[in-house]
């Protein structure tokens, strides 16, 4: 962290380039683990939403069909 702060204060930007190049992040990380992380994240989201939709008892009120009844028609009195 100290190297990053020191590089950020460097006006020329040379320090920032050195920190970026000496980073511990390998360029093969996404090629190696990216697909697995995406599939794992997708499975996690699907499982959490599956639990929420089926087990929590939340009433979602998606459609008013069959729930809203019209009032009976009233004849005009003469």
From TrEMBL:
Main location: mitochondrion
Transmembrane segments: 33-53
Gene3D superfamilies: Cytochrome C Oxidase, chain K
GO term, biological process aspect, one: mitochondrial electron transport, cytochrome c to oxygen
Compartments (UniProt record): Mitochondrion inner membrane
Membrane topology: Single-pass membrane protein
UniProt keyword Transferase, yes or no: no
Listed name of the protein: Cytochrome c oxidase subunit 7B, mitochondrial
Taxonomic lineage from the root: Eukaryota, Metazoa, Chordata, Craniata, Vertebrata
């Amino acid at each position: 962290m100290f190297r990053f702060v020191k590089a950020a204060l460097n006006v020329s930007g040379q320090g920032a380039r050195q920190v970026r190049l000496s980073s511990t992040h390998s360029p093969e990380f996404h090629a190696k683990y990216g697909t697995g992380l995406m599939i794992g994240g997708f499975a996690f989201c699907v499982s959490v939403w599956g639990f929420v939709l089926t087990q929590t008892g939340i009433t979602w009120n998606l459609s008013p069909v069959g729930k809203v009844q019209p009032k009976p028609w009233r004849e005009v009195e003469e």
